[in-house]
């Protein structure tokens, strides 16, 4: 999941070198944390959170075959 979020985020931002994605597994769930440059935050979140919601939907669809809940958090 980490790689998927990283590829999506890097394709959206102006500073792909500043994209940092970390992944932690906790039992039956996976937490994916995404950090981007402050100037790129709006591009990752989108208007009314549409881009962030779309990223979460893609990750949820990809994670369905692993039978684990995946949570994507966008950090400042």
Looking at this protein, list some descriptive labels.
GMP Synthetase, Chain A, domain 3; 76 residues; 28% strand; 3 strands; three-stranded mixed sheet
Structure in a nutshell:
The protein is an alpha+beta fold and about 80 residues long.
Task: Determine the mean pLDDT.
Answer: 95
Helix-residue proportion: 25-40%
List how many beta strands DSSP finds.
Answer: 3
Structural class by sheet pairing and helices = alpha+beta
The proportion of residues in beta strands is 25-35%
The main sheet orders its strands as 1-2-3
Provide the succession of SSEs: HEEHHE
> Which CATH first-tier class would you pick?
Alpha Beta
Question: CATH topology, what is it called?
Answer: GMP Synthetase, Chain A, domain 3
CATH superfamily: K homology (KH) domain
Total number of helices:
3
Major β-sheet profile: 3 strands, mixed
The end-to-end distance, rounded to whole angstroms, is: 20 Å
Helices, strands, pairings?
Blueprint (H helix, E strand, L loop, with lengths): L1 H11 L7 E7 L2 E7 L5 H5 L4 H14 L5 E7 L1
Parallel strand pairs: 2-3
Antiparallel strand pairs: 1-2
Pfam family, one: KH_KhpA-B
InterPro entries: KH_dom-like_a/b, KH_sf_prok-type, KhpA
Keywords: Cell shape, Cell wall biogenesis/degradation, Chaperone, Cytoplasm, RNA-binding
